[in-house]
Amino acid sequence: MSLLKRNIAANFTGTAWQALMSFAFMPFYLKFLGIEAWGLMGIFATLLSMFSLLDMGLSMTLNREMARLSVLPHKEQEMRNLVRTLEVIYWCIAGFVGISVVSLSPLIAHHWVKAEQLSPQTIKQSLLIMGFIMALQMPAGFYSGGLMGLQKQVLLNVISVSINTLRGIGAILILWLVSPTIQAFFLWQIVISIINTFLLALFLWRKLPPGDTKAVFQKQLLSGIWRFTAGMSGIAILSIILTQLDKVILSKMLTLEMFGYYTLASMVAMSLGRLFTPLFYSIYPRFTQLVSVGDQDGLKQLYHKSCQFMAVLILPIAIVIALFSYEIILLWTQNSVTAEKTHLIASILICGTALNGLMNFPYALQLAFGWTSLSVFKNVIAVILLVPLIIYMTTHYGAIGAAIAWLVLNMGYVFFEIPIMHRRLLRKEKWRWYWQDVCIPLVACISVAGLGRMLLSGPAPQFITLLYLIIIFALTLGITALATPVTRAWLFEQLLKIKCYTGTKY
Fold first, then answer.
1. Contact of 33 with 182, CB cutoff 8 Å
2. 57's torsion region: left (phi>0), alpha (psi -120 to 50) or beta?
3. CA 142 to CA 90: how far, in whole Å?
4. Would you say the C-alpha torsion 481, 362, 351, 43 has a positive or negative sign?
5. Residue 293 in contact with residue 71, Cβ under 8 Å?
6. pTM recorded for the entire structure
7. 497: exposed, middle or buried (C-beta count within 10 Å: 0-12, 13-18, 19+)?
8. CB 272 within 8 A of CB 349
9. Could you report the per-residue pLDDT of 342-377, keeping only the tens digit for each?
């Protein structure tokens, strides 16, 4: 198996296991802690996303530089010094984030969160613990970026699977046997964050090529990467505004209970990112290497293969969840009230997330060329146009309005960013992207899953509903794969190999 295929397989295994852990343990969290505590977890995720803008693009910069330098001769010492330099900066940022969250905890607890069951003191204590978690958890993303750039995804996912298993099982045991409180839950996250960050840092340094001398902080190394880092920082800041503003507004306007329902719907929709994120991080370093050696034909071929594979991977899941969101959430939570309050929000959000996923490889192509200005420009325009829309829709239509704004945002990316990008990179590939990479798999998905939706008549026993959903998804995935050129050719190739093998055998 090639390195690229091995990395893709490792990333999917790690992400699938992480998703399984999250979905398996969520009902237990709700049982032990209640929906308001789940809303508090949503606030933690929002704060983590907002403060991650202080990453300033360092994680992605380290990813790109490790991939680029690894294929260039005599760069071993520079790689080690760069990691040390960015590491020092990153830990300073993480410390600032932790102090900021701790300082803001009284204000958030008493004047922002609207809780009915959890006391302000409980919320304040939870926020204080969150500050420590964030200070310890942020550097894990930095070290992960370095391992990904070195294409050590197998090792990274071994660590990820182990940590996420320990995180979930340990949390359930503590809530069951020690203390069923949100404070106990977050204290366990501190322990897990320490272990995770330590392991990632240890293995990144061990996997770096040996240098002539000890790694040192070198300020001059920043001069070669500051443009890319600044661009990534701008993209991160604007992306946080666009993706987290709805949650900030809703956390203020809604009760903690209703925000918990929105967080649950968002979890369903954003779980799609667990599919396209590992594929992005597997192939992006390869894009960077192809650009570094000037292999345009190889880059074009890999670009379309990746885009079509991405579409076949995420569109069947997204369309089936969007059309059957009520049934899926009801099967998952066993709560008809929860399903009723979350299913429409989840349907709209996952459609927007699917479009966002389709844009991952065009975005990776831009970063491989070191071109960050387009993403900065598009997000500036999006903030100017869509932030007022988000505020208006949220104010007048609540959670549904915020979900629609997310969908509109990603539709804009698909229709406006792609033509601009392909006027500069991989020219004459625009219509192939729209037709082969997106439209063919999308039409196939909607046709099959839509017919399945129309044929579903009335309530049915849960086992029958689950079996029906599995059949509809399998049909949608299979027909989409056959309709899309790259995956169809791959399937026929596998069938031919099987035929040749059986023919030789007999």
1. yes
2. left
3. 8
4. positive
5. yes
6. 0.65
7. exposed
8. no
9. 889 999 999 999 999 999 899 888 888 888 788 878
